[in-house]
Structure formats: structure tokens, C-alpha cells
Amino acid sequence: MSGTSVDGIDAVACRVLGRGSRMRATVLQHVHAAYPSTLRRALLDAMSPATTTTETICDLNRQVGDAFAAAARRVMKRAGISARDTAVIGSHGQTLCHRPDAGSTLQIGCPAVIAQSTGCRVVADFRSADVAVGGQGAPLVPWTDWVLLRDTRRTRAVQNIGGIANVTCLPAKGGVDDVTAFDTGPGNMVMDELVRSFSRGGRRFDANGRLAARGRVCDAVLADWLSLPFFRRRPPKSCGREEFGRAFVAEALRRHARRRLRPEDWLATALALTIESIARAYETWLPKRERETRRDSKRFGLPPIDEVILCGGGSRNATLRRMLASRLGGVPIRRIEEFGFAAGAKEPVSFALLACARLDDVPANLPQVTGASRRVLLGSLTEP
Amino acid sequence: MSGTSVDGIDAVACRVLGRGSRMRATVLQHVHAAYPSTLRRALLDAMSPATTTTETICDLNRQVGDAFAAAARRVMKRAGISARDTAVIGSHGQTLCHRPDAGSTLQIGCPAVIAQSTGCRVVADFRSADVAVGGQGAPLVPWTDWVLLRDTRRTRAVQNIGGIANVTCLPAKGGVDDVTAFDTGPGNMVMDELVRSFSRGGRRFDANGRLAARGRVCDAVLADWLSLPFFRRRPPKSCGREEFGRAFVAEALRRHARRRLRPEDWLATALALTIESIARAYETWLPKRERETRRDSKRFGLPPIDEVILCGGGSRNATLRRMLASRLGGVPIRRIEEFGFAAGAKEPVSFALLACARLDDVPANLPQVTGASRRVLLGSLTEP
User: Fold this and answer.
1) pLDDT over threshold 80, residue B299
2) Of A96, A112, A129, the CB nearest to B128
3) pLDDT tens across A97-109, in order?
4) Given pLDDT bands bounded at 50, 70 and 90, which one contains residue B301?
5) Is the dihedral of CA B376, B380, B383, B384 positive or negative?
6) Which of the 8 DSSP states describes residue A36?
7) B193 to chain A, minimum CA–CA distance in Å?
8) What is the pLDDT of residues A136-156, one digit of tens each?
9) Distance from the A89 Cα atom to the nearest Cα atom in chain B, whole angstroms
10) A–B CB contacts, 8 A cutoff, strictly below
């Protein structure tokens, strides 16, 4: 899979045992294949809301297919598995445009190219079916979070921080219908875009949040950002580059130019936006404990959860982890690595499991999460 | 399916018996559903080489999906069949861009939308796999021509005359590897463009070839046209609006202005171009009979075929049929209606059969026709 940050493709080879909700996954190999820089630039240029040509999109569909196929072949080779050993490739593709409210979403990366190039069966286009029945088409990982990380005693928040940040809440002993999940807002997207803008494209992210750690949060900008309608909207909800991409950052830089913030202040403020939007989302939207005593509520602050499991690229950012821990009070924060998945591996593993779910005829969207009118089979099947 | 003229969707409900190369199809109902005019205009605007936005393409993918789903529901209703009676829907979608030499092709019309809206399993995206293995992704109907129209005793040329004319040659007793198919040149395109030009857009075609029948062929113009490199190129080959569209006609009118031809002479000459390019293509490129006696060869002229099956819009043109019969000497010319398919139904039936071929695991591209490096399964499978 490749996320909205478009840095490249995360491919995992994993062994899957069991079926449906009883699947267990073991990661054999994990490869991060950076996009060739010309392809990455072309993708960013074509991303909504961009003016482009139909030819460009047609050709990008092929080129992304080639890049995904190469990543798949590489991870298979490293894991020492052949096409014959491979039950299925789940390919999320690259999102170019996501407009669930208009009933449409566009992931490119031609599945026939992947199938022919690898010799493997491919499941792709996971989001369209959910969007077709009125859902947001996202997030789709909550089902696999539930499959892999549910617990009988602890209520868990699985917090992913990629370009966008999203949470899956897995109540202790909860069934699939008890899962809550939604996008909390930006993850690294605003920070990354700021770094790119300040370095004129020379740097792509603030490693370990070093720059942000040196800056001061501008409360006025933060308040301005947090007043966006997205944060007040009740889940299910999702966001993307349309809300927090280049245009969002350019607009903020223009609007608050007179404040003369330093780059590190902008970074600190963007990081605070990520942290604060996550914390407020927990307080406002996560299901409350049924028998919560006033004392508990005081002790833990509001988030009615027993532990946070952090994943995604942002979980490697030490400054972010420290700030989130401090903002959430006493809630233990664990990293996904403790559960056997490298930070970048969980999401690709999810799409491997979703591909298996498609083969097992198990619908894997969660209507309470995406807003879909019903559970549906996700993905189209392409044979080599 | 919907073709490059974008007038609307041809949907057929058909009963298919048998599997793979033994399939037999009976058309139960045939519906032509015009695109809403705003959608048609949006599609023409987005067609390559056009400047557009990623959002537009994302939304068109949804809207074309809705239109195809509506056409499918309508033809199912007319035929009195439910989703439960329906094994599969084959959806060609709408081609927005076709660049096989760049390894890419783009058909839109979201299959998940069709599947969810009809409750039927859908096979779509038929061209990508052939393009992925180096083919032109077209034509795909020769395989279904072979399935439906091959004969043990007679060698048949299935001659389609749309805007462009193309032939599928089915040798008597021939296997799938013996099929030849390619574009012979213009079908109605040059005649239609002349009529449009002479009537200043008031008329769109020369009904039944009435105007052409009154004119005299100008040998000099015809010879000029027939000297084009396209006609000398060895198959596989294809042509389109790029070769025989508006620019081609404008150039001819300019170049031969001093000859002072009457409109009916131009029409007669354009019709002769269609006829002559078909006949010469048969003589030059169709496989020769293995044991042809000199006497046979004299008697039949060269085309090594026993009968021509005419289909497409041009097959309704009586003058064209008469002239083709005369040019081909004694070869009987039959119309596709005799075989149970209305002129506009054969192509949608083809995609129904291609969907069945996908379910039966039968590769349906013909490498000798498309230039692909191997036979591959066509289409991706989407379940409701």
C-alpha cells in the first residue's frame, strides 16, 4: 500500500492462518520501496484538486501498477516465496482522489499489471464498494485492527499516525459491531507540508520532531485550525489531502503571515494540532465506559481506554510520543512493534488480510465506522 | 457497453449455454440507453487528449457506473430476470483514454457501483490485462466472433462496418489460433464527415448510400487515398479518427478542389474507398487457402473466403452491400441478423461472453490479433 503522503510503497509478505475473524498474521518480510522521484512528483501534481490530463491519469495508473508489482516481487524474493506460494496480493493502490460525499473514490495502480507481472492473483479497489453503498470508504483497517488486536480485558485505542491520523477503539470483549473508528484529523501531513514549503522541497519531514521541539505553539493559529468544522463533525468521518494538504498549509501561511512565526513555531503548532485533535476526539467521540466512577474519570482524564497502541510513521516521532503521553495523562502508550508489527507494516498487513477476507467471502467494512448502509465484500479480483 | 461515439449504452440480456469455446448465446432483450446529455458532454470533454481535473475523472467513474447499472437493471427488467437469475454482468465501461503503446488504457464505470446497484457479480476492465502483456488491448471481439460464428465447412469473414471497418477471418475448421482480425480502414467515417461538411452539419449520414449511388467514383482521388501507408501496413493494425476523421476529409477537399467533384461524386469515391480497402485487405492479408486450384482462384477472385457476414451500422446501407457484393465477385454476403443478432447487439453480447470466459477461466485475447505476448484472463471480478 501507499498512503496519502506518497513517499512510496510498503509491501509485506505475511503468513496468514485461519479465516475471517480468526485470522492470525505473521510478517515474514517488509519492504519500503520509495517511488521514483519523477513518479512521486507526477502523483502529487495529479492529486485532487489538480488540473491534469486524462492521458496523465491513464499513464499513472500503469506506472503505479508497475511500481506496486516491483515492490511485491521484491518482498516475495526476500521472503523466499514464489507466485505459487502466494495465495493473493492485496493492493490498496494509490489514492488520487477521495470524494465519498460525491459517491466517488479513485485508487490507481492497475491490478492487471500487478497480476501479470507477479503471476499472482490480486485483490484491489477496496474502497469503492463501501462508497457505493453510501459509506466513506474509510477507514478500512478497523476490521483488521479488531481481528488482530482485540482483547478480552483491556479497551484499546489503536492510533495510527500517517499523513492522516485515525483511531480504532476496541472495547474489552467487544464484538465487531462494538468497534468505533474514524479519522481524528491530520497526522504528519501538515508538518510535512510545512517542512517542504520552508525548505523549498529540499526536506520532506521533521525527523523525530526535532524542529517542532524547539518551537513555540501559536495558540491563535491552533485555535483557528481547531475551529474547522471537521473537528466538530460526529463520526463516521474521514479526511485527506483535500482538507489538510498543500492548500490548507498555503492558506494558513497566508492568513497568519503577519504573526511572523518562525518555522519551528509553525512545526510546533502543527504537531500540537495533531496531538490536540487526537485527544479531543477521544474525549468527545469514544464510547464512554458504562460504569465509570467519578474518581476513575478524574484519575484517567476522560479517554475511557486502558491503553493506546501507536502505529504509523508518526509513532517513530519521539517528540510526538512524548507530547501525546503528556496530553493523555496516565494512559499507557504502547507501540505496535510490541505486537509483532513494525510501524510501517501494520497497514499493509491489513490489506493482505482484507484480500483474504475477500477470498473468504467475509464483508470487512464496518457500517458504524464508514456510514455504509450495509456490510459488503471489499475489492475486485484479478487473476494472472 | 458504450463505444467511442459516446451516444449511450447498449445493454443486452442474453442466455448463455455451454462454456468457453462452446458457448451459445441467445439475446433476450436489447436496450439502448442514451447518456444524459450533460454526462455525454462531460465525457467528450474529458476524453483524451483533454485537460481535466482528477476530481472530474473520479466523479465520472461513479456517474458512468450509475448509468451502466441503470441500463443493466432496465434490460433485466424487460427480460423479466432478477439478480438471482443473472450469472454475471460484463461491463466494458466507457473508454476515456487508450494508449496501448504507452502500456495504458482507461475504461471508467465503477464496477462496485454496478454490482451493489444490481445485486449481480460484475466482470469489468477487459482491456488492461492484454495491454499489460504488451498487446493493443483491442480488438477483443474476434474471440467471440470465433466462438459464435465459426463454421466447419465455410471460411467466414465477419466484416464490421462502424465508423472504422474491421474484419475477423474465421477459417473453416480453424482453431482459435487461426483467427485473423484487424481494421481494414474507414467504414462510414469518411462518408459521414463528407455529408456533415456538405450539409454544414445539417445531416449526419448518407441514408442507404442514396447520394453515393448517384455519383461517379473519381479514380484519381481514390488512388491518392489508397496510397496511404496504413493500407500497406501488415496486421495487426488499427486506425481511428486520427487517420480518417475530420482532418483527413478537410485535407482531401482542399487537395482535390480543382477537380470540381460534385458532392455525390465525393460520396461515391468515399464509399469506393471503404469497399476497395476491404477487398484489398482480404486479398492481401487474409490467409490463403491451402489447396486452391487455379480455376477456383479465377472463379472467385482472390478473397479466400466462402462468405462475408456483415455487421455494424454500415451493414444497413443497401448501396454499400450491393457494391461490396459486386467487388467481391461471387462471395455470398449475409447479414448478422440471420445469425440472431441485431446489428447493435453483437458487440454487447461479446462482452457478456467475455465475462463468462473470465468465470470459466478461459483466456480470451488473441495474441496474433492484439500483439500481446501471451493469452491472459481478461477482466476483474467484483461481487455484490
Assistant:
1) no
2) A112
3) 999 999 999 999 9
4) very low
5) negative
6) P
7) 26
8) 998 899 999 999 999 999 999
9) 14
10) 153
Predicted TM-score of the model (pTM): 0.88
> Which residue in B161, B263, B249 sits closest to B214, CA to CA?
B263
Joined together, the cell numbers standing for residue A332 give 499507557
For B55, the closest of A48, A54, A377 (CB atoms) is A48
Residue range A289-300: mean pLDDT, rounded: 49
Q: Looking at this predicted complex, what is its ipTM?
A: 0.89
Would the pLDDT of B295 be above 60? no
Chain A residues touching B117 at Cβ < 8 A: 132
Which candidate in A58, A64, A376 is best for mutational testing of the B interface (most B CBs within 10 A)? Answer: A58
- How many angstroms separate the CA of residue A106 from the nearest CA in chain B? 6
CB contact at 8 A, B54 and A46 = yes
In this predicted structure, the answer to whether residue B73 has a pLDDT above a threshold of 60 is yes
- Residue showing cell 436496450: B31
Residues of chain A contacting B68 with CB distance shorter than 8 Å: none
Q: What pLDDT digit, counting tens, does each position of A172-193 carry?
A: 999 999 999 999 999 999 999 9
Residue B54 to residue A52, Cβ atoms within 8 A: yes
Asked if A57 lies within 8 A of B380 by C-beta distance, the reply is no
Peptide bond before residue B36 is cis, with ω within 30 degrees of 0:
no
Q: Which three cell numbers stand for residue B324?
A: 461490396
By CB atoms closer than 10 A (0-12, 13-18, 19+), residue A314 is buried
pLDDT at position B180, please? 94
Q: How many angstroms separate the CA atoms of A374 and B125, rounded? A: 26
Mutate to test the interface with A, among B39, B58, B361, B381 (most CBs of A within 10 A): B58
List of E strands, A109-210: 122-124, 156-161, 164-170, 180-186
